Amino acid sequence: MLRPRALGVPSLSRTRFWHPASHARSSHVAGATSFNNTTGLSPDAKLSRPPTDPTPPPLSLLALPVLIRSYLISAVSATPILLTPSLRILSLLAHTKLPFLQVEHNRLLHYIIKKTIYAQFCAGETPPEVQRTATQLKETGYRGIVLNYAKELVFDKAAPAKQTRDDEAKDLEDWKQGLLKTVKLVDSGDYAALKFSGAGPSVVQRLIGKLPPTTAVSQATKEICDYAKDIGIKLLWDAEQNAIQPGIDRWTLDLQREYNRDGVAVLYGTYQAYAISTPQLLAQHLAIAHREGFTLGVKLVRGAYMGSDPRHLFWASKAETDRVHDRIAEALIRKEWNETLSPIEEQGAQKPTFPNVNLVLATHNHESVRKAVAIRQEQSRKGEELIDLSYAQLMGMADDLGTELIMAGNDACAATRAKTELSKTYKYTAWGSVRECLTYLLRRAEENQGSLSRTREGRLALGKELRRRLRASMRWLDH
């Protein structure tokens, strides 16, 4: 029986963090032995409610329509014979130039997509729709949302688009207004997720060339950042395709230098664990943050562009990506260097001190979240300083994990009468027209294709909850 204590609250045996043994075997990380020795957790340990516990399961938090839609979409995602043609159709709709296949011109297509896959993953096309979705998520128990304006540009490096100055100015103004709207749609304490590619082809070309932003782009970006900081919104600059990612890394780091002062991160960069270059890149940014005295905001993900970026840029296997992701997360949470995230040392200089860091752990992996929670428990027992940490999952995915975190946070609040880090769980979602969201939706479908085992696990959990509710309804009818 596992009995770790989370921030002085009852044991996480009530949180039901579980993972199948087959997944655990593929997800063990280097250093897990020493980690488990210090926490008393074994890699194959399962946390479950006692069979006599009357508390309903975490997925009971989901509204019935959401539960049914999630089950149906996960059933398609977990079935290759259905998922493959669905991906082809979605890709065709996202890139078509045929008017009758463009959702903005075809009312039937628009209706079908909006009521199914769009409703599953996206917040809405209008501010009232977005606010309604955000309210529903918060009523479910999530601390808040991470809202992304879905407009972005999928570009062809070999054939860069040409624009007039008027076109460039219009694209930039539309992008700025869209992002300001996004920031205005979320509440203080929420996050807004941003993409530079939505500013137009000319901005993308500067990112490809690793050039600094133009004065106009810099002014537009700072207007967004100033407004967000004034009203208490944090900004996550999302990762994008590899061709422009180095440029994005430079621009976001410059912004963090300016805004992430006084021990708090207002801006976060995204670091993709599946990229071989990520440990060294993150170590460089940590060294700069320490040297220049600002807080580094880190959103850690596994990665979402494997379908479009060159394969040689990634680790050879998922197991290696899992190892790198979890060791980076552990280093950041503990604020200690390790063999994966090692310091950039100058000759003759002392080993650099780990800088202040704020972390958004954006993962659907039960094992990764379980390890992060266990580290925090250990730190709390020892009275160690805790970094600012939030968990995030995509809306429409990993509901079993998200609701488990919510229930764990509720248990902790009941015991301590205060909010704890376990309740800082967010849902990431996009907003915009159905047309603007198609590229975003295609990536979500591709992620499901790349993680069929996890999708099947989610479908089984959703199906179990549906059966539980059906049995409960039948018992009610019998009475």
Give a brief outline of the structure.
The protein is α/β, with parallel strands linked by helices.
Furnish the topology, listing elements before pairings.
Elements: E1 5-6, E2 9-11, H1 21-27, H2 32-39, H3 64-77, H4 80-95, H5 107-121, E3 122-124, H6 127-140, E4 144-149, H7 165-185, E5 191-194, H8 201-208, H9 215-231, E6 234-237, H10 245-259, E7 267-272, H11 278-292, E8 296-301, H12 318-334, E9 357-362, H13 366-382, E10 388-394, H14 399-416, E11 425-431, H15 434-450, H16 452-478
Parallel strand pairs: 3-11, 4-5, 4-11, 5-6, 6-7, 7-8, 8-9, 9-10, 10-11
Antiparallel strand pairs: 1-2
Describe, in plain words, how this protein is organized in 3D.
The chain is built from 16 helices and 11 strands. It has 479 residues and is of the alpha/beta class. The N terminus is likely disordered. It is globular and about 75 Å long.
Walk across the major sheet and give the strand order. 4-5-6-7-8-9-10-11
Note the gap between the termini. Answer: 38 Å
Order of helices and strands: EEHHHHHEHEHEHHEHEHEHEHEHEHH
Strand content: 5-15%
For this entry, give a set of tags.
479 residues; two-stranded antiparallel sheet; 16 helices; 11 strands; disordered N terminus
